[in-house]
Amino acid sequence: MKILIADDDPLQRELLVGFLEKQGYQVVAAADGHEALAQFQRHPIALALLDHRMPGLTGDQVLAQMKAANPLLRAMLITAYGAVETAVQVMKLGADDFIEKPVDLKQLLGKIEQLMQRHAVATDVAAVTHTVTNTAATAPQPLDLIGDSPAMRETLSLVRRLADSPWTVLIQGETGTGKEVMAQLIHQLSPVASAPFVAVNCAAIPDNLFESELFGHEKGAFTSAERQHRGCFERANGGTLFLDEVGELPAALQSKLLRALQEKHIRRVGSERDIAIDVRVIAATNRDLRALAAAGQFREDLFFRLKVLDLTVPPLRERRADIPALIQHFLTRDARRPIQLAPETLDLLVRYDYPGNVRELEHIIQRSVTLARGLVLQPHDLPEEIRHPAAAASTGDLQTQLDTLERDLLLAALEKSEWIQTRAAEQLGISERVLRYKLGKYGLRRPAG
């Protein structure tokens, strides 16, 4: 990385040049603003350290011309003691930071490292956004990456770096944080993006079908095996296999999964022949696998095999700055008519802690826009747990609260469609079969009369 130092004081200029060169940076120097612009034209400058008061062109004038030529340039103003207010004003022109004279070299180095970290993150995020945007039309499942909070930017930056590797990734995070979206993104950014992405929910498959689902089976391998079946590993060959809720994997299957990962071979149920596989495995869990391994409930060797690389998806309460953008996304997608939020409503939504994370926010918006009578969502349109979070905290665990929210959403859609299931299912974006299953799950029946 190349740094430009522009300062009319030769002693300070030489001090800064020598110090930064010892830290491994490439440095070019300038004695005034005009020379600084000339050096900027000759070299690919990543960071400019500009003395605010220089003869001829001042630091803020130099900064303005540099930013006009390269908006991505990182810059820091060096200002005299007592001129902090001026430096803050100059930062509005695009400076990232400032440092006072006499320059504390340790502090300067820390600031430079922070700027370079932000620059690296910004570069990664821009690359991710570019790829997602350019592949949206051809991707099997277009991704919606909503949010620009520091936590989200750090996550996307890490995803970009993980994507280039062929190693297994363990994605950890609470329920509803978007772990599958991150897995899809890793695949989409990877060298095998055009190959299959196969997802399997380990918590949703009966134990007796698990081996067949993962590894496949031969015709006649068991009573209902009327034809040969290719398992998830085979279907994902050359691409990515996503194992969601891997902490729910039965103990007997854990050893077979470990063998497949180690030997890169699988064997269908009822077969005596090994099949070579080339699959990148991404696993996800909302459980503490290390604690489960310590308790003997999850194989420790499998845990370490899955956790070659790891990614933790932050909960929504740690990226509250993204909540307004997420709300607008859900309103645009789900509202059947233009709806806005009253300021008080947005305030309540941003303050809520969301134990169910983004998924819970999505369901809350769907429920609220379905039940709202007006074109502006008011606080009374929100669920009780949002309006009175302290009272709702004692009403049950996360699954109970999510079930209550889903039941309310189903009931609202049914009432709005006069209990015509076809219309209700269409409004909810689910099939009639799924709707009937959920009606039975919650015991919902059309009122008599």
From TrEMBL:
Pfam family, one: HTH_8
InterPro entries, per database record: AAA+_ATPase, AAA_lid_NorR, CheY-like_superfamily, Homeodomain-like_sf, HTH_Fis, P-loop_NTPase, Sig_transdc_resp-reg_receiver, Sigma_54_int
Domain Sigma-54 factor interaction: 145-370
Domain (Response regulatory) ranges: 2-116
Modified sites of kind 4-aspartylphosphate: 51
Keyword Cell membrane included in the entry's annotation: no
UniProt GO BP: phosphorelay signal transduction system; regulation of DNA-templated transcription
GO MF term set: ATP binding; sequence-specific DNA binding
Domain of life of the organism encoding this protein: Bacteria
Coiled-coil regions, chain positions: none
CDD domains per the UniProt record, alphabetical: AAA (cd00009)
Keywords: ATP-binding, DNA-binding, Nucleotide-binding, Phosphoprotein, Transcription, Transcription regulation
Official protein name in the record: Sigma-54-dependent Fis family transcriptional regulator
